[in-house]
Model the fold of this input.
Amino acid sequence: MSARRDTILREMGLAPLWRLRARTRGGKSAEPAQATVLPAARTIPPERAIPAAAGGERALRIAGMDWKELGDTVAACRACALCEKRRQAVLGVGDLHAEWLFVGEGPGADEDEKGEPFVGQAGKLLDNMLAAIGLRRGRGVYIANVVKCRPPGNRTPEAAETAACFPFLERQIALIAPRLIVALGRPAAQTLLGAEVKIAAARGRLFDFRGIPLLVHYHPAYLLRNLPDKAKAWEDLCFARATMRRLCEEAPARSP
Ligand code: URA
Done:
């Protein structure tokens, strides 16, 4: 393990847990398997599906926007009550042709002030998590949120707010066309999968968002509050990295 990765894992609260250890008697290494046999992508059974928000004329318009129009529209959006208390809308940040798309819940106070997702404490942890698997914000990575305006008091976005904002996220996904989506936390997972999701049950599995493989991770803010679960985050990161490797092997060049 490189010194830099060591430092990052220590900051994440993962070291020394993640040092390679000798194989146990059962032949299992303490390091999460990197050559995991990945389960096939699964979709949510219809009985657990949450009905998608009605598309309508507004969603159709958004679905035809380029990045400039999308940015302007999000900045001026008044489609739900979240616009009333925001300082600014936060569209997203990163590589517009990213292979990795990370989707969080919504901007907090720091993001509302700076106009960029995940710049507070949770963002620092996210950056460290990215670095632990050799990724960096903006380099092959795009970070977005389900809602683009800060929910007051950092509460979970309401269904109507999520529904009003969803066409923006849909358009971002269509424009980026990532190889892999990582939903950070329950609201992001539920929004993208259109179903009730329990992170503990969904992590480590491969889902599908309209043909794009999707993984579910604990939200970094949750990990900050629940230190023991940080260990699971490393397993999830290894799974994400193994999934991306497999996707790249299966289709080395992405279609435009
Ligand atoms: N939490 C989120 O879900 N998104 C952010 O941008 C910041 C914190």
